[in-house]
């Protein structure tokens, strides 16, 4: 699975003019299931993200995890993270999981993050979403598992 995470002071996702998910301090997690991914990779990604020490401690060093700071996660599906531009200017997405598998793994990932004691909010799989965020730092990290 592939994720792009951003440390945020706030983030929200809107569909058809209505906010469907929002958080305060925490992580915006854009996630994409790739061909060959399974539940084990979802659990591995959730565990990795929950333990990343990317929040600042009292000394100003990135030394605390999402769990340590009691932050939330806004989890948004984004198949475009699978973009391949190696053959020109129009991205290809053939390495993304098929929609039914992608949806199941997205839902599994949300459950895996929640099972770690992290409050979650979500986007809507396959919907046209508007994501609003205030990146804190900025801190943005790309993860593949």
Low-confidence stretches: none
Q: How many DSSP-defined strands?
A: 8
The fourth-level CATH homologous superfamily is D-tyrosyl-tRNA(Tyr) deacylase
CATH class: Alpha Beta
As for the number of domains, it is: 1
- SSE succession: EEEHEEHEHEE
Q: What is the CATH topology descriptor?
A: D-tyrosyl-trna(Tyr) Deacylase, Chain: A
- Helical fraction equals 10-25%
- The class by helix and strand makeup works out as alpha/beta
Radius of gyration: 15 Å
Q: How does the major sheet shape up? A: 6 strands, mixed
Note the gap between the termini.
Answer: 5 Å
Helix run count: 3
Tell me, rounded to a whole number, the average pLDDT.
Answer: 97
Q: Percent of residues in beta strands? A: 35-45%
Per CATH, the architecture is: 3-Layer(bba) Sandwich
Rough outline = globular
């Amino acid at each position: 699975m592939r994720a792009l995470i951003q440390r945020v002071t706030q983030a929200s996702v809107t569909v058809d003019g209505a906010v469907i998910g929002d958080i305060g301090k925490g992580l915006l997690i854009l996630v994409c299931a790739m061909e060959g991914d399974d539940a084990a990779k979802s659990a591995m990604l959730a565990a990795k993200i929950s333990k990343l020490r990317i929040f600042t401690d009292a000394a100003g060093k990135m030394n605390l995890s999402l769990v340590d700071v009691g932050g939330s996660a806004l989890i948004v599906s984004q198949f475009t993270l699978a973009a391949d531009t190696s053959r020109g200017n129009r991205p290809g997405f053939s390495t993304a999981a098929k929609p039914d598998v992608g949806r199941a793994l997205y839902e599994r990932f949300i459950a895996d993050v929640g099972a770690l004691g992290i409050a979650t909010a979500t986007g809507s799989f396959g919907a046209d979403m508007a994501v609003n965020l205030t990146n804190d730092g900025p801190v943005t990290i790309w993860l593949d598992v």
